[in-house]
Write a structure and sequence with these properties.
Helix content: 55-70%
Number of helices: 16
Oligomer: single chain
Low-confidence stretches: 454-466
Order of helices and strands: HHHHHEEHHHHEEHHHHHEEHH
Protein name: Cytochrome ubiquinol oxidase subunit I
Membrane topology: Multi-pass membrane protein
Radius of gyration: 24 Å
Family: Belongs to the cytochrome ubiquinol oxidase subunit 1 family.
Structural class: mainly alpha
Strand content: 5-15%
Keywords: Cell membrane, Electron transport, Heme, Iron, Membrane, Metal-binding, Transmembrane, Transmembrane helix, Transport
InterPro entries: Cyt-d_ubiquinol_oxidase_su_1
């Protein structure tokens, strides 16, 4: 059990840390591509300066995401070898395609975009950033397809003779309804993250009245992006909630700490309960909302933890099939709450910056914009923790328990040592990344004279620049 707990902690730290960079890379790559498209079409120097400035921050973030992502995949062979042996044929297929196709696409064309200024035509250079952005989106889909198979295993069978799961329909894995729902929800959350990042940096400069010709349109773009993406998060989140109720009813019951089946079911905004979450002492509730989230009907029935636990014991045998209730309950609410706050900031910002507004934007909004940077990252982390902890005790839902996937030959000192080393290393990388991001964010965009490429009308010989 000690090995299992340490391995889970290590995977959680690496995964949550890695996921700090992924949403920003995906959303910001598309926004930068849009900025360069605006420059390509209008030849307006402001858009070129925006492209160069936000593109530099994108590259720093992308580099950190690559480093942490590689380490994450190594864990499957180190701490989770039994998991890899049992389901590797299925889980590894979308990850292999992600590495060979999507990551190759984004990294190659991002490299061409970096070194292609003044060496490629404007149109070809623009195509590079768009292909890189498409690659980041494809990477997200293939990775989510692998994770969604763990949430809702399809297209596979369990071969009892060989003692492992085998892939029988790869198309079913890629078109898994859970994967489609998770992808749409994740991508919209990525745009919320990128929009709030652009908003925070822009607000910091505008509060000091610096580079207003660049950061005013940047902030406006960010506000529109966050508003549209927030609406998308709500719609796709509603879709995911119903899929979750259908495929993993225990996760939905744990999200509400609902112990007994009830119809209609209310949604608690805030609850004070016992430490194990088994007893409710005080709560503030909204009638019928949980029924609507789970079933699409305000009178729908939502199954309780006790009934689902009894059903699981009949199906899988004796055992505890409930996740950590306090953790799932609060991460579910933190995810929703932080996301809604980000959307609210965008609504207020769009109202304050509307064209007919004669008054300047109040300085307090710039402070709110900078502080709001934490919201999407906190929401993403809470959502990821809820998704993974709510599936417990399963590594692959209904197929393989988490306790059965840990490496049997790895000793406790080994796992503890790697956990400490990786945590300290990631802490140091966080300091370096924070320093670089803050330094270049404060530096602002390049001057107009140095931002404009010297030759963008025709192709030149491509050479690697150092």
């Amino acid at each position: 059990m000690m090995n299992l707990d340490l391995a889970r902690w290590q995977f959680a730290i690496v995964t949550v840390y890695h996921f700090l960079f992924v949403p920003l890379t995906i959303g910001l790559s598309v926004l930068v591509a849009g900025m360069q498209t605006a420059w390509y079409r209008t030849d307006d120097d402001r858009y070129l300066r925006m492209t160069k400035f936000w593109g530099k921050l994108l590259l720093i973030n992308f580099a950190m995401g690559v480093v942490t992502g590689i380490v994450q995949e190594f864990q499957f062979g180190m701490n989770w070898s039994d998991y890899s042996r049992y389901v590797g044929d299925i889980f590894g297929a979308p990850l292999a395609i992600e590495g060979l196709l999507a990551f190759f696409l984004e990294s190659t064309f991002l490299g061409l975009w970096i070194f292609g200024w003044d060496r490629l035509s404007k149109g070809l250079h623009l195509a590079c950033i768009w292909l890189a952005a498409i690659g980041t989106v494809l990477s997200a889909y293939f990775i989510l397809a692998a994770n969604s198979w763990m949430q809702h295993p399809v297209g596979s069978i369990v071969n009892d003779e060989r003692g492992r799961a085998e892939l029988v329909d790869f198309g079913a894995v890629l078109t898994n309804s859970t994967a489609v729902g998770a992808f749409l929800h994740t991508i919209t959350a990525c745009f919320v993250t990128a929009g709030m990042f652009v908003l925070a940096v822009s607000a910091w400069h505008l509060a000091r009245d610096r580079h207003t010709e660049v950061f005013r349109p940047s902030m406006r773009l960010a506000l529109v992006t966050v508003l549209i993406a927030s609406l998308g998060v709500v719609v796709t989140g509603d879709l995911q909630a119903r899929l979750m109720t259908e495929q993993q009813p225990m996760k939905m019951a744990a999200a509400e700490a609902l112990y007994d089946t009830v119809a209609p079911a209310s949604f608690s905004l805030f609850t004070v309960g016992s430490l194990d979450g088994s007893q409710e002492l005080f709560s503030v509730r909204v009638p019928r909302i949980l029924s609507f989230m789970a079933t699409g009907s305000f009178d729908g029935e939502v199954e309780g933890i006790n009934q689902l636990q009894a059903a699981a014991e009949q199906t899988y045998g004796p055992g505890d099939y409930t996740p950590n209730i306090p953790a799932t309950y609060w991460t579910f609410r933190l995810m929703i709450g932080f996301g809604l706050l980000a959307g609210l900031i965008s609504v207020v910002g769009l109202w304050l910056t509307r064209r007919r507004a004669r008054r300047p934007v109040p300085r307090w909004f710039y402070t709110v914009g900078v502080a709001g940077l934490v919201l999407p990252f906190a929401a993403n982390s809470a959502g990821w923790i809820f998704t993974e902890m709510g599936r417990q005790p399963w590594a692959v839902y209904g197929v393989l328990r988490t306790a059965d996937g840990v490496s049997p030959s790895v000793t406790t000192p080994m796992v503890l040592t790697s956990l400490i080393v990786l945590t300290l290393l990631y802490g140091a990388l966080a300091v370096v990344d924070g320093y670089l991001m803050i330094r270049y964010a404060k530096a602002g965009p390049p001057p107009a004279a140095t931002a404009t490429p010297t030759d963008t009308d025709g192709p030149r010989p491509l050479a690697v620049a150092y």
